[in-house]
Amino acid sequence: MPHFAPDIYTTPQVGKLLADEARVLAPLLSRCTGDHGLHLTTSAPAEPPAIPLLGHWATVRVAGKALGGDVIASGLEPLPFVDEAFGVVLLRHALETTSRQDNLLDEAIRVLAPGGMLAITGIHPVGLWSPWVARQSRGPRPRLTWPWWWSQRLVRDEFDLSVPRRVGSAWPRTGGTATGESLVGGGYLLVARKKRPAAVPLRPRAAVVPSPIPGTLASGARRNARETL
């Protein structure tokens, strides 16, 4: 009798995929700096990648209309962080489990500092993983999306993009050697950098310098001449 998981993100198959993603993510994000990073993830007990130059991670778990983890809030409201608060934002399968995909991406862009890195991972809708997800899911089914869709969104929002990568094994499995990038990998990974505002040079303004009073006589001589008259 087949075993159906109430949450596919807690299965060993997805756990293996998350480990494969972390193997590829770590070197791509190794130069990220800042005091804090934001880890938007699912219910999976996965740790964010270790980044030497980054201070701390805040982890927020996304599940439909609710947010959990380090922050307990409603997923229908803006993220409870100020603008440009994070040097890196990692959306780790979070866009698959939120009830408002575009809003969550907009919020991730808002809290990302200029020059910061945004990384998106997910299960690719084309391949052997997609029917496995449909068959295993009991409850809200993940919304699998194409990576090129998010690429177009980020280009429109003025991000510098790297080429999307396929990662992990071609089919859901629990064992075997660690897998990095693969042309037929079941997951995808997209990394982009938020552009800094363009520096506009200021135009120099001409300073008005008063011209000296014309004439050959000193001011004292002029005063004496008036007194004589």
From TrEMBL:
One MF term in the entry's GO annotations = helicase activity
One Pfam family matching this protein = Methyltransf_11
A biological process (GO) annotation for this entry?
methylation
Q: Keyword annotations for this protein? A: ATP-binding, Helicase, Hydrolase, Methyltransferase, Nucleotide-binding, Transferase
Q: Which domain of life is it from?
A: Bacteria
Q: Which residues form the Methyltransferase type domain?
A: 70-120
Descriptive protein name: Methyltransferase domain-containing protein
